[in-house]
Amino acid sequence: MTNVKTNAPVAVGEHHEVTAVRLNDDGDGVATVEGLTVFIPYLLPGEKATVRVIERQRRFARAALVERHTSATDRQDAPCPVFGECGGCQVQHLAYASQLAWKAGSIARVAKQLGLDADTVVRPIIGSESPFRYRNQVQMPVAFDAEAGKVKMGFFGAQSHRMIETDSCHLQSQAMQKTLVAACAFLTKLGSALATKVHHVIVRESAMNGEQLVVFASHANSAELKRALIRFKAADVTTVGLTVQPKIGGPVWGRTVEILRGTGMLQERIGGILFRVSPRSFLQVQTPLAEQMYATVRDYAALTPEDTVIDAYCGIGTMTLMLAQTARHAIGVEEVAAAVADARTNQADNGIQNAEFVAGSVETWLPKWVADGNRADVAVFDPPRKGIDPAALAAVAEVAPRRIVYASCNPATLQRDLKYLMEHGYAVEAMQPLDMFPQTSHVECCVLLIRK
Ligand SMILES: C[S@@+](CC[C@H](N)C(=O)[O-])C[C@H]1O[C@@H](n2cnc3c(N)ncnc32)[C@H](O)[C@@H]1O
């Protein structure tokens, strides 16, 4: 944005004629008005439109579509009736092949900004065979509508807590949708006194056997509510739980989940290993893509039977147990206690001896482990969106493993962390984008770094 006109005469409320030239990383069309960059949601590259400025910052503005005058050839009808209102999807209006090209382009841009030759380093993006109905979990806000006398469900609008009512999200399976509809009808029958206590219904589904786990998130820890929720039944549901999160508008999950009925977990088979997944444990949202991601990580790690490998941010140990199969020793590190418990059970159930799991934060454990004189041959990182903590990055640079494999779901923090690692003795050998989250602006990427 070097040529941006910060003093451009563009003000909130004005209408302008624009042509979008590209999509930004959030999926918004990017146009220029009087030299100022303007972001317009739901406008595709090449499309002309009249827009209204709704926000003016020093270096850019945001605008809303008033009228679109032309249609890009890769525009498609969004199947979801609330697309554009609901904050869940950003690019349902873009043909899937173009979604993939755009996401591959974001990763190529990261490579270029790091001074790399994107054409040699970035591999062709791995797309999804099911760009709709791919999610294996959903967290649906629910609310009691006093006027209608029933519980309604929907998603929050983009950057708001206004519920956009829908019972047909196109990212989740039909079976999960049926369960959500049944849960709302069940809550309605309980009556307003109990139904108003519940703010979310969470459903997770096993790709292996279709079993579902349902957790009701409540503002209150009510014995009466628990007694009622135990009775919730739907075709594929094998577990019903309750989590208490009293903060209005706060996080969905409380600190714990009380299992009211059933086994308290799902089973999933990934890469030939059987996993137990409890309600709070992380699992990649699209199981077939997760398999492809793990295969990439395994190839990039290129372990030998003498190697010690660290799997930082390991969740339920999916990658740790896979990596243990070709290493001498694999260590998984994870801060969510329930996920570590799952990981240890998964290790025992699969009879894998040469893995261990550490419960704690990577940024606390890794520097201490290194200070104690331990070393790893290969390190795998799969952090949340905020990326790797600086203390953990400094520690891994000190360990200097032969290879580092970085699985990221946020190109911005990936770029920041790769820059650090490149300045500390590593070369980026390959970047593999994967479309874990079709119809949204998110993209996953696995990166192989080799010690120079
Ligand atoms: C993107 S998930 C990856 C999980 C796992 N690799 C997988 O593929 O299923 C990130 C994981 O890191 C955990 N986590 C987040 N911050 C952490 C931290 N500071 N230290 C350790 N684990 C953390 C989360 O609980 C989550 O399980």
TrEMBL record:
Recite the UniProt keywords alphabetically: Methyltransferase, S-adenosyl-L-methionine, Transferase
Tell me one GO biological process term: methylation
Q: Which InterPro entries match?
A: MeTrfase_TrmA_AS, MeTrfase_TrmA_CS, NA-bd_OB-fold, SAM-dependent_MTases_sf, TRAM_dom, U5_MeTrfase_fam
Q: Name one GO molecular function term.
A: methyltransferase activity
Domain TRAM, residue spans: 9-67
Can you tell me which residues form the catalytic site?
Answer: C409, C409 (nucleophile)
* Residues the entry annotates as binding S-adenosyl-L-methionine: Q284, Y313, E334, D382
Q: Under which EC number(s) is this enzyme classified?
A: 2.1.1.190
Q: Does the keyword Amino-acid biosynthesis apply?
A: no
List the SUPFAM superfamilies: Nucleic acid-binding proteins (SSF50249), S-adenosyl-L-methionine-dependent methyltransferases (SSF53335)
User: What superkingdom does the record give?
Assistant: Bacteria
Which Gene3D superfamilies does the UniProt entry name for this protein?
2.40.50.1070, Nucleic acid-binding proteins (2.40.50.140), Vaccinia Virus protein VP39 (3.40.50.150)
**Coiled-coil annotated spans:** none
Q: Which family does the record assign?
A: Belongs to the class I-like SAM-binding methyltransferase superfamily. RNA M5U methyltransferase family.
Name the record gives this protein: 23S rRNA (Uracil(1939)-C(5))-methyltransferase RlmD
**Species name for this entry?**
Alicyclobacillus fodiniaquatilis
